[in-house]
Inverse folding.
């Protein structure tokens, strides 16, 4: 029996692509580099700022101080963290249905806490979620299972009674390691349908509300 559903954040609950892409492009302009389009940077978002920089700078990235560039992107993003970010279609409905079924909800993201908490406060459908573990909450992050196990502990639920939903391979690996059922969020920032299915999730779903029929 499923007693809790835990979610990744970027690319699973929230479409943060335009805000993150804007931060990347601001840094690219600063360094007189051509900006990149949404279709090019969106698949990289779930893999973090380094992946975004690889899209923006390409093979030239090794000529720069990557940590400095990373901090520049983060600084820009922090200042404009929820200008264009919104819940994916169906997320609000899903959360309402889970609440009506008395299914607990948590978030486990590799996004650092100094970005996660302010962002969630500005999203009405998510600001009430209290069980939130970030990429720097522990000394390890996904695909290590410990952050997921911590969310389950906060919710008071056995890991085997949890579903974890994410849009990256590390999400599925973390769910397997934590002995949780895994859902690949095909509505998110997946690199391709074929690659996402190859991750081996128990469920590959194209719309958030589909989760309800698998509770």
């Amino acid at each position: 029996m499923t007693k809790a559903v835990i979610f990744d954040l970027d690319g699973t609950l929230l479409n943060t692509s335009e805000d993150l892409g804007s931060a990347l492009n601001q840094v690219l302009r600063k360094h007189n580099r051509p900006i990149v389009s949404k279709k090019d940077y969106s698949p990289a978002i779930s893999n973090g700022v380094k992946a975004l920089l690889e899209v923006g700078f390409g093979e030239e990235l090794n000529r720069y101080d990557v940590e400095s560039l990373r901090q520049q992107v983060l600084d820009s993003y922090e200042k404009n963290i929820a200008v264009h970010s919104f819940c994916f279609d169906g997320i609000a409905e899903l959360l309402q249905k889970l609440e009506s079924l008395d299914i607990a909800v948590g978030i486990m993201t590799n996004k650092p806490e100094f970005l996660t908490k302010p962002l969630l406060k500005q999203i009405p459908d998510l600001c009430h979620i209290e069980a939130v573990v970030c990429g720097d909450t522990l000394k390890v992050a996904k695909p290590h299972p410990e952050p997921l196990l911590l969310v389950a502990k906060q919710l008071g639920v056995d890991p085997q009674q949890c579903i974890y939903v994410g849009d990256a391979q590390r999400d599925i690996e973390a769910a397997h390691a934590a002995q949780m059922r895994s859902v690949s969020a095909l509505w998110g920032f997946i690199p391709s349908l074929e690659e996402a299915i190859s991750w081996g999730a128990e469920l590959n779903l194209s719309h958030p509300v589909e989760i309800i029929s698998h509770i």
In short: The chain has a mean pLDDT of 97.
